[in-house]
Every structure is written in C-alpha cells, then in structure tokens.
Amino acid sequence: METSVRARVRAGDPDAFGSLFDDYARVVYNHAFRLTGDWSAAEDILSLTFLEAWRLRTSVDPDGGSLRPWLLGIATNTARNVRRAARRHEAAVGRLPREGVFPDFAEELAGRIDDADRLARVRAALSRLRRPEREVVALCVWSGLDYAAAAQALAVPVGTVRSRLSRARKKLRRFAGAEIPSENGNSSRGRGQGDGDRVPAVRTARKETRR
After folding, report:
1. CA dist., res. 198 & res. 42, Å (int)
2. How many CA atoms lie within 13 A of 123 on its CB side?
3. Which tens digits make up the pLDDT trace of 91-121?
C-alpha cells in the first residue's frame, strides 16, 4: 500500500477507509473465522475491527508498507474480547432455568465448508493449543503473514512468533496426525484463498467509518 494511503487513513479520509475495507474485508473475515469457527461471530469481529481501526487511525505510521498486519492485529484483539463476552453470556444463560431444548445448528454451519470432516479434525486439535499458539497459526499459516508481520500484528518479538509456531506445529502433528490445511485446502505451505470463503454483508461497518 502506498505511503500516501497510510497518511490518508491516519488523517481519517473516508475514501481511504472505504478502500481499506474493500481491500482487506475478506482477509479480516477469514482470519476471524479461523479464530472462532463461527460465521456469525466472524461477521461481528469484522465489523468491530474496522470500527476499532477507525478509532485507532491516528496510531498508523504514515510511513510503511501494507496495513494488513495492523488490521489483523486489531482483529485478533477483537476476537479475544468477543470470546470473553461470549463466555460471560454463556455463564449468565447457564444460570437461567431451562424451559426447552433448542436445535443445534453446528451441522448446518459445517456444511458450508469444503472438506468439513478434515477441518473439524484440525479445529479439534487447534482447540487443544494455547491461545497464543492458535493466533500465530491463524496469522502465519492461514492468513499468510511472515514472521515479522505476525510479530507486528501481535506486538511481540519475531522470536516469540517463531517459537509459538514451532510448538503449535509439533502439537498439531501429534493431536491431528495431519498437516494444517491452508486457506486453499492444501498443505500448510499454501497461501491462496479457499473457494469456500464467504464475503458477508457487513457494509454497515464501512458506512460507520464514513460518518
């Protein structure tokens, strides 16, 4: 991304933010889904990420390259907050008296994903990782960031990213007995976008940043 665009984002130019949304909405959404495994939560995180990016726009350095690591870092923090809020909500609901059984829509959601069985197996393995390890897998393997960009997104040293990813790979091989599928459904060495990726109707986030 050109330096002038970074400067325009920093200055709060609505057109620059609109272009930022158009360029990176899919990337942020896919990253959010990889972290949560939930389409609806990913849509919420996408909207919240760009609203937070608008709030934090003055923190953007006018000099530099792509704003992708910056956005993915915001999305990662947003996902953490959404998960904490969800846990609090579930705890509150769990204290309410149960009046009936509600249907589980997990199978319907899984049906939207190519090779659902394989993804489910890997997600089960991912759930056994520590949160920092899951985050580096999502950033480096599925979102395709290099070590330096992932370190920027997470605000940690490059060496920390390397060690977390190394531990995560070893654990996943032990837990899942398979390579981590990339975004294009191949081995973890691939970096393409999968055919099953969705582009949600979240134009409201873009509208909010234009106000």
Report:
1. 10
2. 14
3. 555 655 555 444 444 444 444 544 456 666 7
